Amino acid sequence: KIQYGTTFGYPVSSIGSHVSATPNHQTGRITPLETRATVAMAGTFGYELDLSILNDEEKEIIKRQVKEYKEHYNLINRGDYYRLSSPYGKCRAVAWAFVSPDQEECLFCGVMTCLQSNPDGTIIKLKGLNPKKTYQVGEQVYTGEALMYGGILLPVPKEEYQSWRYEIKAVK
Fold this sequence. Notes:
Layout lengths: L1 H5 L11 E3 L12 H8 L5 E3 L7 H23 L1 E4 L9 E7 L5 E8 L9 E3 L9 E4 L2 E4 H6 L2 E3 L8 E8 L2
Parallel strand pairs: 1-2
Antiparallel strand pairs: 3-4, 4-5, 5-10, 6-9, 7-8, 7-10
């Protein structure tokens, strides 16, 4: 919610956002390492935790996250930022995306904020893509029009605060 509001007045490149320790020192909330990275990548991205208490698997995950952020650095800091759903609305998923100025690539990010039993599917409609272009999302190919007007169906979450990051690229 803090980042959502801050982006109305400041560019993403100026927002300090970091992966903190869990449980959170203020709220006591426990969130997955992937989710904390997904949210932190919507800003300057860093870590505020004691690396010496992490296990080897967590350290490898962090290495991968840093590599991923570096790969998407220009897109995140120079691309167009779109709020796709509000953390204040009825939607259980909060989502945002970064789209390159030439509309050739997009980084979609989403976080499921609350679990429900037997949930309906959650569809997020993208913004900023070229409706005439074709895009690859994982193994699937869609038109920009389909992604913006039909949307992406998120997988059924398996844990509280599960997150997703999808790299979306125009097909040549």
